[in-house]
Structure formats: structure tokens, C-alpha cells
Design goal:
This protein is α+β, with helices and mostly antiparallel strands. 28% of the residues lie in helices and 24% in strands. The strands form five sheets. Strands 5, 6, 7, 8, 9, 10, 11, 14 and 17 form a nine-stranded antiparallel β-sheet that branches. Strands 19-20-21-23-22 form a five-stranded mixed β-sheet. The protein has a four-stranded mixed β-sheet with strand order 1-2-3-18, with helices on both faces. The radius of gyration is 23 Å and the shape is globular. It starts with a helix and ends with a helix.
Length: 479
């Protein structure tokens, strides 16, 4: 597991999975290069340097988690793990977490440069416009917002996107109901500004926690400290009473005034679903009071690109492991869970189940659709398959769907499900009414319980036998 972003890049370079791109332009070109890289499997991490109009050393990272080895590296897992075994290993590691609070230190690399007052200008960094029709330059894609609950003192770290409005103003895009929005509203309801520290480059393990479904009330600092079995070193902010990572690359400190006081136009943005579905609209803003950054700073970019191969495998692995762990606490028989990255991760959940009693399949489907770790925004499909199906192998999943599911009797529809503005399937009428809901299909792609023993036998070779064949002949087939 790499502690800071620079260590992660160095280790990716040692693995032969890092490419330095010099001379690209921040206006769309960097995004197109990153998209092109996704046309091959297990593609490299990209480091953009000498960006047009900016000094050497002011770098932007893209495609950090487009290979299984780098996902394992970020998670502190064996680098040879793939597919369901990678998810299983992460699930097992999550089950051992004992939270460790952060440790305050007097100084750190992030304080190598401290900019205040008139020196505050985020445009000193090569902030990309990632997609052709984005509404502007997005400083926050692989970022983290640090906030403190005014009632409890709970420190929350969340990954929310952010667009540049001007040199000292950026936007805050957070779906209602997410922890960052809940905290901000508490301040705004009191007529107060919400203090915030926005981190633009950090170690991958901390960013994993920012986008993971960590329970409300538990700080991501504590959760991540438990993952690596040692505390994170933090500094007190220069202008805000918030803990910031001592080894962060760039931190923006500021306050978010109530939207009734100030907003800025934001969007559209090339969303994670692969569309410009959201509209340009007024958003809350962060008024920046201070910028802290390391020498030769690196922005962490996770721009949400649609490629032949996934740009963010780590999210699929984490969500899958978290939901699998939830199943382990509720019902027996679940042998694997996968948020299908081919369907943009959150929209489709596949659960592999060893049927043990009548109604077992429906029970599993309802848990996947209803639990906090499964009921993510824009959840369209929950597919339950038998335990002979690898839920990470879409070829096998589609085989089960095409041969074991009777659409008339084995598909149920749930309505009025939580969605969001980026959902491309929300109709214009719904948008005008502010109705951001969707439906979810629960698909039973298992052998029917009542006559499962009479279902025709599959021709598929048993996994343990296939492994023997691989050991004997694999060197001739795969080199």
C-alpha cells in the first residue's frame, strides 16, 4: 500500500504501468489521451507534465485505477489478484478494520507553499477541461472535501466534483443525502458558512475511503488508518479548523456560504454514466481563503471516461466487497458479488448465490436493492445467478441470463427508487418536476428452485478441473 500519491506513482513506474505525457493541452486534449488509453486492457497510469501554458512539474494524473495490479497496490493486496478473488480479498480486509484516529503533526510537505490573500489563484494549476462539452474546467474529479459536523465534531471526507468559477471560487456538487450535503445544510440552516478543505492530490488509500460507503459518524481518516494499521498524519488548516493530510499535494481552504447568499453556474459535465445528462445550473460555491501545495504539485484526476476497458476498477471492487460483507451479516449462501464495471459500475449488481431454501433468490435480490451499500444512486438492475457463475465474468452472467431466466416469471420491478440529475434516463418531465427517481429490475437468472435438480446439466468444466488443465497446458496457450 502506497502512503502518498508520489509513492503510488513511483511503484506504478516500477511495475511498468506509468506513462509520462509531455506537452498536452489542458483544454480537452488530456481527456482524449486518457480515453484513448482505455482502448486496451490493464492500461497504464498517465502523468501529464509540461502542460501547455504551465511550468514543468505542475502535473496531472489520470487513469490511476485502470489496471487490476494498481488497484491491488492501492488497497495493499497481493498484486496478482484479479476478478472475484480481488473482491474477496478486499472484503476480508474490510472485515478486520479497527479504526485508528489521525495524528496531528506540526508541519508536512503540503506546507512547502502557503498562498494567502491576493496570491490565491487556482488557475496557477493546469486544471483540465476533460470532455468536449463540459461547462468548464474541473478542478475536482479525484478530489476530497473535508468537513466537520457542527453538532458532533465528526470529520467527514467525501469525493464530490468541483468546477472552477474564477481564481478564488470553485463549485460544490453533492447529491442530496450524501454526507457532505447533510453537513453543509446544517451550517446553512443556521445562516452560517460551512468551512471546508478541498484536497486535490492524496494517497490512493485515503481517496478510496472518500468515495466508499463509510458509515455516517465514522471519519474516513479513522477508517483508512485502520486499513493500513497506522494513523494518518494531519495538520490543522491554515485558515480553517479542519485536519488536512500532511503529505497532500494541493489543498484549498475556504468556506461555503449558504446558496441563498452566493452560487455559481456549474455543468454540464461528462458524468460517470457516460452522458452529459445534467444541466447547467446554480451550485453552492467554495470561497477560497488559502492554497497550500507541495513543490511540483500533482493533481489527482478521475475524470469519468467511457472506454473499451474500465477507467476506475477500484470503485467496482470496493462497492462489491462492501455489499458482499453486508450479505455475510444477513444471509448464507452468497459466493460472490460484483458491481458490473461494463455497465458503469453502480447501475448493475450481480450476486452469485448457492440456493438453500425457497425464496432465497428473492431475499438476496431485495437485500442488494435495499441495503445502504447496495442501494446506490441509479441502480437499474440486480441480477442473481447460481454459484457456478462468476459474477465478474459478464460472458457467464449473460449465459445465465439468456438460459435460466424466464422474463415473465423471474423479473420484478421496484419503482420510486433514488436516482440523481446525472441519470440519462430521467425524462424531461421528471426533471422539470424535480422527480429524480428510477425503477430497478430484480432479475432471477438462477435455475428454478422447484425443479432445480431436473434442470439440464451444464457442459461447463468444473473450476478445479480447469485449473489443472491450466497448470498443465497454460504455458503453451498463454506464454
Amino acid at each position: 500500500m502506497s502512503d502518498d500519491l508520489r509513492g503510488f506513482i513511483d511503484k506504478a513506474r516500477e511495475l511498468g504501468e506509468c506513462r509520462v505525457i509531455e506537452g498536452a493541452h489542458w483544454d480537452v486534449e488530456m481527456g482524449r489521451i486518457a480515453e484513448l488509453a482505455l482502448t486496451v486492457p490493464e492500461s497504464p497510469l498517465l502523468v501529464f507534465d509540461k502542460v501547455t501554458g504551465y511550468p514543468a512539474g505542475y502535473r496531472v494524473v489520470a487513469n490511476p485505477f485502470s489496471s487490476s495490479r494498481r488497484v491491488a497496490l492501492a488497497m495493499g493486496l497481493p498484486l496478482d489478484l484479479r476478478g472475484i478473488e480481488l473482491i474477496r480479498a478486499w472484503k476480508d480486509k474490510l472485515a478486520t478494520i479497527k479504526p485508528i484516529p489521525p495524528e496531528y503533526v506540526k508541519t508536512g510537505p503540503v506546507r512547502e507553499n502557503v498562498l494567502l490573500g491576493d496570491k490565491v489563484d487556482v488557475l496557477k494549476f493546469p486544471i483540465p477541461k476533460w470532455h468536449e462539452h463540459d461547462g468548464g474546467r474541473y478542478i475536482g474529479t479525484g478530489c476530497m472535501f473535508i468537513q466537520k459536523d457542527p453538532d458532533t465534531g465528526w470529520i467527514n471526507i467525501g469525493a464530490y466534483r468541483s468546477q472552477v468559477a474564477d481564481g478564488n471560487t470553485v463549485t460544490f456538487h453533492c447529491v442530496p443525502g450524501h454526507h457532505g450535503a447533510i453537513i453543509a445544510k446544517k451550517y446553512w440552516d443556521r445562516g452560517q458558512n460551512c468551512p471546508v478543505a478541498m484536497v486535490l492530490g492524496q494517497g490512493p488509500q485515503l481517496w478510496i475511503s472518500a468515495m466508499s460507503p463509510v458509515p455516517i459518524g465514522l471519519s474516513e481518516y479513522d477508517w483508512s488508518g485502520g486499513l493500513r494499521n497506522k494513523p494518518f498524519e494531519v495538520l490543522k488548516g491554515e485558515t480553517v479548523d479542519l485536519p488536512i493530510p500532511a503529505d497532500a499535494e494541493i489543498v484549498l481552504e475556504g468556506e461555503m456560504p449558504p446558496p441563498s447568499v452566493e452560487t455559481a453556474m456549474e455543468g454540464p459535465f461528462g458524468e460517470w454514466e457516460g452522458y452529459y445528462a445534467g444541466t447547467r445550473s446554480a451550485h453552492p460555491v467554495v470561497k477560497i481563503k488559502a492554497i497550500l501545495h507541495r513543490n511540483d504539485p500533482i493533481q489527482f484526476g478521475v475524470p469519468m471516461l467511457v472506454g473499451t476497458h474500465d477507467d476506475n476498477i477500484i470503485q467496482a471492487v470496493d462497492y462489491s466487497a462492501q455489499l458482499w460483507g453486508e450479505f455475510d451479516r444477513q444471509i448464507p449462501g452468497v459466493s460472490g458479488v460484483s458491481f458490473a464495471y461494463e455497465a458503469r459500475r453502480r447501475t448493475t449488481i450481480v450476486v452469485s448465490l448457492k440456493q438453500m431454501y425457497p425464496g432465497h433468490v428473492k431475499q438476496a435480490a431485495l437485500i442488494a436493492a435495499g441495503t445502504y451499500k447496495g442501494a446506490t444512486n441509479v441502480g437499474r438492475f440486480v441480477i442473481i445467478v447460481d454459484d457456478d457463475i462468476d459474477p465478474t465474468n459478464m460472458s457467464e452472467v449473460l449465459w445465465a441470463l439468456g438460459t435460466r431466466c424466464d422474463p415473465k416469471s423471474q423479473i420484478d420491478i421496484l419503482s420510486n427508487r433514488l436516482s440523481q440529475a446525472s441519470d440519462p434516463r430521467v425524462s424531461p418531465e421528471q426533471r422539470r418536476a424535480g422527480d429524480f427517481t428510477c425503477t430497478t429490475a430484480l432479475i432471477d437468472a438462477c435455475r428454478p428452485w422447484a425443479w432445480r435438480d431436473q434442470f439440464p446439466k451444464a457442459t461447463k468444466t468444473a473450476p478445479e478441473v480447469m485449473e489443472q488443465v491450466r497448470q498443465k497446458w497454460g504455458h503453451l496457450l498463454f506464454g
